[in-house]
Amino acid sequence: MTRPSLPLLVALACCGAGLPLASAPQSAAGAAEYSPAGADTCLMCHSNDAVLGIFRTRHAMPSDPRGPFGHGQLQCESCHGPGGAHAGMQQFDGQMAQVIRFGRERPAPVETRNAACLGCHDADMGFATHGGAHDDNRIACASCHQLHSPTDAVLGRSTQAGKCYECHAQRRSDSLKAYSHPLREGKMSCSGCHAPHGATTEALLVRQTTNDTCYQCHAEKRGPFLWEHAPVAEDCTSCHDPHGSNQPGMLVRRAPLLCQSCHSQSGHPSVAQDAGGLAGNSPYLLAQGCLNCHSQVHGSNHPSGSKLMR
Ligand code: HEC
Ligand code: HEC
Ligand code: HEC
Ligand code: HEC
Ligand code: HEC
Ligand code: HEC
Ligand code: HEC
Ligand code: HEC
Ligand code: HEC
Ligand code: HEC
After folding, report:
1. Which among 222, 225, 190 is positioned nearest to 302, based on CA atoms?
2. What is the pTM of this model?
3. Which long-range contacts (CB under 8 A, 24 or more apart) does 194-198 make?
């Protein structure tokens, strides 16, 4: 956002909040004009609790010169754009002049809304923002962030997922399955694995690969192992669904079936999987099945652990 230069700065005491006020810049081009007394003007008509909530957020820190309410800044209008005509209730084509609206009703185009934020936040966003799945799909900053609320749900570890579920409903039902990451308990959030602003991976992961993402918290699974199990080093999600599953350990399938999805049907491993009646009695398939013997499924450091049995 290119901000107009401020020809004069007047410090006024604001509306009991004791905020230093920016001036009313006059647009040289005669285009959109800012309101004469900043927030004071706006609050004459908009002083309900929902709006006033912003004064309990970081954005309203008068001591932060970079923030909307810092000295010389445009206050409400640093996000809502020039509101002079709107505050004067000027009519254009029979309609009241508008500011940039972020809510559900008649919102400004996504580009306009996001530009208002990026004018101050471009550098915080990281190079991967542009072209990330959310940017590509024209998701507005304010679809995730709440600016007037003292608590921005998407920034809270226990409240974030609720915001994401508004659009990713399948992830909510995954989280309700019998085994899942402790999202519901508020012990972690989606952003433990995902970078919502964008990332170089398609699935917006916080690290270069799925496995590197998992190793952040499950470092012991990285090895190195004397005897690696190939799919583990390759992709944890060949066996686990990180969003939740109904199998213990968030496995994508029950253990014998899981192993058999890759291991050959010939030889001992698959004895009788499909030989009517026998399956229930086979020691290879009982209880934990393969894991009864091949317990070191993530890899082994035992000299004779080549078959992942110790
Ligand atoms: C004289 C009263 C008045 C003043 C002053 C005023 N507004 Fe408004 N504002 C209104 C009215 C009335 C509406 C509803 C009109 C409409 O929906 O088109 C409105 C609507 C809005 C909306 C859209 C609300 C929504 O539900 O989406 C925003 C945002 C807004 N104003 C911001 C501002 C800002 C920022 C200022 C200061 C620059 C300001 N207003 C000054 C009367 C005022
Ligand atoms: C940092 C950016 C920012 C600043 C500063 C800001 N707003 Fe907003 N405003 C938003 C966003 C984003 C929304 C959409 C709802 C939300 O996120 O809470 C919004 C919503 C609104 C609405 C509609 C209310 C609703 O519930 O839909 C009004 C009215 C409004 N703002 C007025 C103001 C006034 C008056 C000020 C100054 C006191 C102000 N805003 C300062 C970003 C801002
Ligand atoms: C005039 C500059 C400015 C504008 C415009 C602005 N911000 Fe900010 N924003 C800031 C500053 C300064 C901070 C505080 C940063 C800090 O404390 O390190 C901040 C903080 C934040 C935070 C972190 C809040 C927290 O509690 O940690 C979020 C999220 C955010 N802004 C989103 C937005 C969005 C979305 C918009 C557009 C609707 C927006 N900002 C518009 C300057 C701005
Ligand atoms: C899909 C949801 C989503 C969208 C869209 C989104 N954010 Fe965020 N934002 C988040 C989450 C989640 C965090 C917290 C990140 C974390 O915990 O690591 C965050 C953090 C922030 C912060 C805090 C500082 C930081 O980087 O940690 C700022 C500032 C911010 N966002 C600004 C923006 C702006 C500006 C836009 C639009 C260009 C935007 N966000 C779009 C979800 C989103
Ligand atoms: C306003 C709706 C909306 C919100 C809120 C939202 N998303 Fe998204 N998200 C989308 C859309 C649309 C896409 C792209 C289409 C798709 O893949 O579903 C997407 C894509 C993604 C992707 C990549 C999907 C892929 O196919 O590679 C991830 C990961 C993701 N979102 C995570 C999150 C997280 C985490 C949050 C909360 C911090 C969140 N989203 C909040 C709408 C949203
Ligand atoms: C423990 C790590 C982890 C957590 C926590 C997590 N995800 Fe994911 N997510 C992943 C991985 C890894 C992928 C890529 C999966 C794949 O390629 O099969 C992914 C893929 C996605 C996708 C795109 C692919 C798809 O299946 O649609 C979306 C959308 C998504 N996650 C949303 C979320 C949301 C929303 C949350 C929070 C409720 C969340 N994720 C929590 C690891 C995680
Ligand atoms: C931000 C940290 C974090 C990341 C990243 C992470 N996890 Fe976890 N993981 C946890 C926590 C916390 C638990 C629960 C541990 C507990 O309850 O003792 C857990 C548990 C698990 C469990 C065991 C579930 C059970 O029922 O015993 C599996 C399997 C798992 N994670 C797989 C993954 C995979 C695969 C990835 C990468 C896609 C991943 N994790 C990324 C934190 C993380
Ligand atoms: C070949 C299938 C497979 C792959 C690939 C795999 N796991 Fe596992 N994982 C399992 C099985 C089976 C269990 C259940 C073990 C048990 O019940 O003792 C398990 C259990 C876990 C557990 C919970 C118990 C424990 O050992 O801590 C975590 C955490 C875990 N895996 C993380 C990972 C991570 C991280 C990756 C990727 C580096 C990964 N897994 C790759 C099959 C796999
Ligand atoms: C995604 C496919 C995949 C899944 C699922 C899988 N494996 Fe493997 N497994 C492999 C590959 C590939 C190798 C390496 C084969 C080789 O080197 O010849 C391997 C190697 C092994 C070995 C060592 C074989 C040898 O000759 O040294 C054992 C034992 C083993 N897997 C057991 C299991 C068990 C038990 C499970 C179920 C928990 C399982 N595997 C699930 C792909 C898989
Ligand atoms: C009762 C113990 C036991 C069970 C249960 C078991 N295995 Fe094995 N498995 C072994 C032994 C012992 C070897 C080593 C054979 C050798 O060294 O020649 C082996 C070897 C393997 C190998 C290496 C290739 C080969 O044939 O030598 C694979 C792969 C394998 N098992 C997969 C599985 C799978 C998949 C399951 C579950 C369907 C399973 N095993 C269940 C004991 C078991």
Report:
1. 225
2. 0.92
3. 195/126, 195/128, 195/132, 196/134, 196/144, 196/154, 196/164, 197/125, 197/126, 197/128, 197/129, 197/132, 197/134, 198/125, 198/126, 198/128, 198/129, 198/130, 198/131, 198/132, 198/133, 198/134, 198/135
SS3 227: strand
DSSP letter, residue 64 = -
Ligand nearest 137 Cα, by number? 5
SS3 300: strand
- The CB of 240 under 6 Å from ligand 6? The reply is no
Residue boundaries of the structural domains of the chain: 1-125
Whole-angstrom CA distances from 16 to 8, 11, 13, 49 are 23, 14, 7, 15
Condensed to tens digits (0 to 9), the pLDDT of residues 212-224 reads 999 999 999 998 9
Q: How many C-beta neighbours within 10 Å does residue 277 have?
A: 7
* pLDDT band at 232; cut points 50, 70, 90: very high
Q: Whose CA is nearest to atom 17 of ligand 5?
A: 133
Digit-coded pLDDT (tens) for 190-208: 999 999 998 888 799 999 9
d(CA 23, CA 255): 68
Q: How far is the CA of 168 from the centre of ligand 2 (A)?
A: 25
Compute the distance between CA of residue 209 and CA of residue 219 in angstroms, rounded to an integer. Answer: 14
Tell which residue, 130, 132, 128, has the closest CA to residue 202: 132
